[in-house]
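Appendix B. Raw example, untouched.
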Amino acid sequence: MAVRFTLALGLGILSALAGSVGVVHAQNIVAHRGASFDAPENTVASMKLAFEQGADGVEADFYLSSDGEIVCIHDADTKRTAGVKHVIVKTPLAELRKLDVGAWKNEKYRGEKIPTFAEIAETIPAVKKFIIELKTGPEIVAPLKEALAKTKLKDDQILIICFNEKTVAECKKLLPNLKCHWLTGYKQNEKTGEWTPTLDEVVATLERSKADGLGTQGDMKHVDAEFIKELCDEGHCEFHVWTIDNPKVAKYYQKLKPWGITTNKPGFIREQLNAKSTKVPAAAAK
């Protein structure tokens, strides 16, 4: 693999490629766990608010409960959002539904429950996207197939995403008509400066799992214009970036033409991407 350019040089390449192009629109502005900056994440309220704020789609996280129900929550247990700890895979749906996962965010959301997959699916308008992050191993895919069959969602509304390579492969086996992206973040070795996974490792994982694209952490120090160019040269041009709340970072990735940009602030990021300048108060960009 060729030596990658520095970020500064990558920005220069990007600027040259952009030329005199006007406002460039990312294909999809995706609300991370719903409009999670304003509402309690992974709740029906956060999904509905995301669409009110103009999101093109919502991303939601899913586990299996102990009795095999697909439930919407990010963490492996309920401690952070409910205040009491119940391990999701060891707790039946009925017990999980007794918990309040809204009040921690704001008193006005008191009473929000951990939603089922069906309840989240019902919030998706006909013209919007549903990004389904699977937080478990391949055992969740067969139940997901059954759950999807009960919805009115069309194939082109759905994108499945997952960090687990085996789960991605199972999705492509059981749900071949649906797109699935493999997710990855990156770590840099403090001594050598090397990043893992490397681009070669990313490409190898995409090919082994038969993923349709890459869901990549939006780290401009590593995932820059040259990284995306090399990824595309290897035959993997489809990608999306997460989780981008800084408008300058969003603008950078927007010009690289991702499938989507995932953000906690869908309304704010869309507004900033459509503005002539991405200069915003420092507090708003955090």
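End of appendix B.
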